[in-house]
Design goal:
Blueprint lengths: L6 E4 L9 H14 L7 H6 L5 H8 L5 H19 L12 H10 L3 E5 L4 H11 L7 E3 L11 H10 L6 E5 L2 H10 L2 E5 L6 H6 L4 E3 L5 H10 L2
Parallel strand pairs: 1-2, 1-4, 2-3, 4-5, 5-6
Helix pairs in contact: 1-4, 3-4
Length: about 220
């Protein structure tokens, strides 16, 4: 590890992109395909960030693993169909591109830690021209789901960054817990799917309300550990 390296790891859904409408729509379709009562949109938004099977299990705690995996496959099918439509939209949050460019220009290494599949992440990065922006991509494929710290730990190992030179940026309590367990700093964003108070209770050491202030905020965390 190189002590001078700085690594910023980003969640995707609710942090980089606003994908809640597609996630909620796909989950509703998955439930309907399996003749289950429609989930409340608020409950679906709350589990965004978990890996898919774990998210389904959180919504359907009374069903067994086999049913969870069946519903998860129905979700994949529904989401793929939605993503293939010409009107599909998962916009970047305003200011995201400029903030990523600023961090890059200031010498930060950038990474991803997401509950998305690798296929889903690749599609998102291609759509927004981000494929070469990040040096490490940690997805639900081959990693334990959040808040397990493995994704952050693997990202740090791949980038060669120490925990106290790493910041995890996300919109959920799962992101904050994952970061703190891995020994990294935890920065929450206020525009995502979990409340600011919940982010702070889960260990967020900073919470920002816009992309414009994020680069300075994460730099300050490393300067004042």
């Amino acid at each position: 590890m190189t002590s001078s390296l700085r690594l910023a790891i980003f969640d995707v859904d609710g942090t980089l992109i606003d994908s809640q409408h597609n996630i909620v729509a796909a989950m509703i379709q998955a439930f309907e395909a399996n003749r289950l009562p429609r989930p409340e949109p608020g409950r679906v938004r709350h589990i965004i960030g978990l890996s898919l099977v774990e998210a389904v299990a959180a919504l359907l705690p009374d069903l067994d693993d086999s049913h969870h995996r069946t519903v998860a496959q129905s979700y994949r099918d529904a989401f793929f169909a939605l993503r293939s439509r010409p009107d599909h939209a998962e916009p970047l949050f305003p200011g995201a591109l400029a903030a990523l460019a600023r961090l890059d220009a200031e010498g930060w290494l950038l990474g991803i830690a997401t509950g998305k599949s690798r296929r889903g992440l690749d599609a998102m990065m291609e759509r927004h021209g981000l494929a070469r922006r990040f040096v490490t991509h940690q997805t639900a494929d081959g990693n334990p789901g959040k808040p397990d710290p493995t994704m952050v730990m693997r990202a740090m190992a791949e980038a060669g960054a120490a925990p106290r030179r790493t910041v995890m940026i996300g919109d959920t309590t799962f992101d904050m817990q994952m970061a703190r367990t891995a020994g990294a700093f935890a920065a929450g964003v206020a525009w995502g799917y979990h409340a600011v108070g919940d982010l702070r209770a889960a260990g967020a050491q900073a919470v920002v309300d816009s992309w414009q202030v994020l680069p300075a905020a994460v730099a300050t965390l490393l300067e004042n550990p």
